[in-house]
Structure formats: C-alpha cells, structure tokens
Amino acid sequence: MLLVDDEPARVDLRGALGREPDIEVVGEADADADVPALVCAGKPDVVMLDVRLRAADGTSATHHLLRTVPDPPRVLVLTAFGNDRDVYDALQAGAAGFLLKRAGPAEVVHAVRTVAAGEAVLFPAAVRELVAVRGRCRQGGLGAAALTPREGEVLRWMARGLSDAEVARELAVGVEEAQAHVAAVIAKLGARGRVQAVIAAYESGFIDPRRPLD
C-alpha cells in the first residue's frame, strides 16, 4: 500500500501497518506528492491519502487515479473531521471509504484489509450524516435503476454497512449469490462501488438520510 499524508500522521500509520505480515507499505509521501506517479511506480493495491492534499485535493487525486491509472488501487481517504465536504466529494469520486485520523492502530489495519479485499469501509451513521448535511437529497426513488425488491433489500443492507458475507446471512443465501446481488445493484445505479451506491440511495430519497437505519 501507499501512504500519502503529512509526516506525523505517516509515522503513526506506518507503525500500525508495519507490524502486520500481510501488509506491505511500498511507498509513502507527504501532501505535496504526485500521487498518480507514485501509484504507477509502486503499484499498490491500496492508497491511503489525506483528503486535503496540497498539490491536489484528495477528491481530484481520487478521481484521477480511478479514471486514468490502469488497474487502479482502492482509495481510502483520511480526514480529521467526519463531516468534511471534501470527504463526501472523495466518496462520490470513487473512494472505497474514509478513516478518521484519530483512529486506533487496530481500526487502521482493519480498514486496509477491508478495502484490499474489495469491500468498503462504510460507517453507516457517518455516511448518513454526510449526505444529510452535504448532499443533495431528491425524492422520487431510483427511477431508471429499476431495482428488484430483492436488490432494494440488498441496498438497504449495504447502507447498514454489511459485508457480502453478512448480506448473505441476512438473505439466507450463499456468499456468491449475495455478491451477485451487490454487483447488480452497483451496476444498475451506475456507481463505482458500494459507497457510491449507498450515496445514490440516500440522494435519490430511496433511503431517507434524516432517519436512523433500523
């Protein structure tokens, strides 16, 4: 993985990740870094970057990585504030999740493993608050997405932050079937991943971000 943040934060992150045998830090840089160049050189599976880079904000860096770099890495953004507008924009751009800079070592390691496995680091209450405060909520459902009743159920479980395995248990189906449902939801919504699908559900009014999830 690649770490892009200021020096004090990088030291803590490197310390948390460096003790894990299944995680290799292939590069690190400060907030002035040319992130795409570092990704092309190190080919990390995951990039953890400060959402407020100086050379280019985290949203622009995320957008550029996911749309121009061949076989792009998964992006996990770091923020000091959970309701940061830049975090919301980075999630919309395709980031697989975000992590508060005050997160403990175990939480950092879990987040990296989660996004590396293709899942999302999704804090349901935090994402709901981001959309309610920063988003553009519209009523009228998901329109042309035309989700089936089962897919709508899956989307609600996704909004609760459930993994594929947890969705499978809730639906009493195999993990592969749950993964197929999740993939169908993402494709129908034209999203880049789970996080963007959940944001679309909130912004469309399919799920009301002002109401707690059951």
Automatic annotation (TrEMBL):
A Pfam cross-reference name: GerE
Domain spans labelled HTH luxR-type: 140-205
UniProt keyword list: DNA-binding, Phosphoprotein, Transcription, Transcription regulation
4-aspartylphosphate found at: 50
Keyword set includes Metal-binding: no
UniProt KW Ribosomal protein keyword: no
UniProt cross-references to InterPro entries, sorted A to Z: CheY-like_superfamily (IPR011006), NreC/VraR/RcsB-like_REC (IPR058245), Sig_transdc_resp-reg_C-effctor (IPR016032), Sig_transdc_resp-reg_receiver (IPR001789), Tscrpt_reg_LuxR_C (IPR000792), WalR-like (IPR039420)
All copies of domain Response regulatory, residue ranges: 1-116
GO function terms (MF aspect): DNA binding
Signal peptide: none
GO terms under biological process: phosphorelay signal transduction system; regulation of DNA-templated transcription
Name of the protein this chain belongs to: Two component transcriptional regulator, LuxR family
Biological classification of the source: Bacteria, Bacillati, Actinomycetota, Actinomycetes, Pseudonocardiales
